[in-house]
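quick q for whoever's on today - can somebody do inverse folding on this one?? i tried earlier but teh output was garbage lol. tokens:
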């Protein structure tokens, strides 16, 4: 999938800057911090998504509850780009056009100045992808609820059940296309894979699927899709960034920023390599099964940048492994070696 260069509407950006002011919101908040936010300018969004082989229905669970009071449902699949010229493989949750994104925001009552709080019902799973989507279209007042709905409930947060109230509508205008430098197409990934990873012009591709799918030892959850990996891509399973759910803590949540930096540094080849590519501005591209959990790594880097004032230059391969492996001409590598 290749995007044309976005047409930047500076009027939109200027209006958004004036309405939001210079105060930045934190990328990651906990339940206590959420409860302290001014409700008049804050809107929680349920952005839950489950794997294709899951028996759970994100929509049904949202409609029945429990959910955060006043939460609206932002469906990453429903808003996705489906035009055949831009999504020829009919892949799910691909980045939409600015028009489609703006229409969904208008329908949900989101305004330029709205502070959106993104959560899922797993803990940390699909909410980073929603954050990536909003920020790719220039909406910077975005926070992810760490631990999601389960953490919120565990902290004693109030919930609502049953019928969803009136959503309301709003005026909203987005960029025509997502920020081009944040997205990689199939053609760009293939061209990059033909260069050796030691070449300083080669972008480092991190594959966030489980290691056994990267090596080809385990099957893909999408029936008929080969496992394996893109030539010269490196394994970086997304679970490494998270404290997993347990009997005492029934939700996943992000590890500390110092731990995230260690994990990301290890994935790219060590602390020295991390510092080197950071200074060079050498891009790191996150990939996964379908572009969902790749955003967990993307947000981890954003959290590092937020705390330290600098991080890696990153993008997401929007189609990810599904789009790559569906194409018969794609070269697929098996085993532990990236090449």
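ok took a stab at it. sequence:
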């Amino acid at each position: 999938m290749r995007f044309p260069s976005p047409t930047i509407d500076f009027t939109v950006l200027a209006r958004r800057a004036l309405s939001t002011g210079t105060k930045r919101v934190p990328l990651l908040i906990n339940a206590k911090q959420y409860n302290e936010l001014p409700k008049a300018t804050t809107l929680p969004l349920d952005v839950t998504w489950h794997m294709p082989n899951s028996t759970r229905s994100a929509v049904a669970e949202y409609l029945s509850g429990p959910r955060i009071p006043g939460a609206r449902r932002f469906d990453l699949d429903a808003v996705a780009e489906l035009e055949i010229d831009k999504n020829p493989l009919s892949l799910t949750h691909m980045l939409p056009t600015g028009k489609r994104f703006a229409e969904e925001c208008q329908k949900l009552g989101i305004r330029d100045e709205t502070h959106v709080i993104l959560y899922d019902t797993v803990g940390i799973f699909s909410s980073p992808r929603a954050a990536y989507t909003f920020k790719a279209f220039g909406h910077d007042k975005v926070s992810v609820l760490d631990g999601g709905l389960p953490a919120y409930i565990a902290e004693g947060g109030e919930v609502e059940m049953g019928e969803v109230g009136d959503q309301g509508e709003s005026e909203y205008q987005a960029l025509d296309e997502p920020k081009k430098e944040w997205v990689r197409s199939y053609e760009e990934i293939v061209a990059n894979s033909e260069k050796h990873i030691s070449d300083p012009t080669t972008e480092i591709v991190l594959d966030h699927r489980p290691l056994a799918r990267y090596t080809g030892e385990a099957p893909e959850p999408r029936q008929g899709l080969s496992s394996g990996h893109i030539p010269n891509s490196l394994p970086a399973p997304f679970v490494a960034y998270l404290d997993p759910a347990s009997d005492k803590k029934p939700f996943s949540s992000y590890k500390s920023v110092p731990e995230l930096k260690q994990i990301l540094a290890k994935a790219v080849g060590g602390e020295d390599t991390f510092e080197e590519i950071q200074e060079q501005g050498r891009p790191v591209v996150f990939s996964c099964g379908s572009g969902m959990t790749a955003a967990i790594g993307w947000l981890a880097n954003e959290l590092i940048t937020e705390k330290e004032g600098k991080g890696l230059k990153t993008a997401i391969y929007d189609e990810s492994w599904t789009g790559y492996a569906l194409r018969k001409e794609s070269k697929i590598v098996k085993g532990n070696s990236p090449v």
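fwiw The two ends are 24 Å apart (CA to CA). also The chain has a mean pLDDT of 91. so keep that in mind when u check it
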